[in-house]
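Researcher: Go.
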Amino acid sequence: MYKNIPENTSKNTHNVVAELLFENKEIKKVLDIPSGAGAFTKRLLDHNIEVHSGDIENIMQVENKHFHVADMNLTLPFDNDFFDAAVCIDGIEHLENPFFFVRECNRIVKKGGYIIISTPNISALRSRWRWLLTGHHNKGKSPLTEQHQTYLHHINLLSFHRLRYILHTNGFKITSIRTNRVKWMSYTYFPLIPFAYLKTWLVYGREKDKVQKQLNKEILSQMFSFPIVFGETMILKAEKV
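Model: Structure:
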């Protein structure tokens, strides 16, 4: 919670996203979407950053003259190359079309700018084990309520390699992979790493295309990085190229 405003995300996520954002001192204009109650917006305002907050409805608990009603499934109400960075904290998993949203972010972020996305980490070994046993990932442990559809549902939980594909095929390149925290329970899945790595290495190695085969080596390394294997929340920073 940032100054008594609920963050509505996993513990420490806002802190890590802020660290990644503030790495770039030249960032002056940022989109915070979905902004929710405005905890991250308030953090940026306190750093004298021009923040444009966007969400499907206005539930802000902080005053921001740059609030915009915005549906992340539709065209965003901003001009081309308007922002230095876009921040999407635990929002992309709620979207019907994450590809379209990332393309929109590419449109409104300047070249050399950034997008930072946090989302539940279903590529963690703990989540993969749950999927094996139940067919459900963490943060999606049971069927969604079909009679009461809501934009709060996790309708599009994304694995690391799928989110990387969405970013890398829509004008962004991942520069940082982080997590908010590692719960102690996640370390109990450590013995699975050799088996998971070997199987993944064998599958990735079957690629015939030379360029993609080289990329698969990079993806394999990222898939078995500490934040992805053990982290609760996946936090990616990607540069617009």
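Model: The chain has one domain: 13-124+143-187+227-240.
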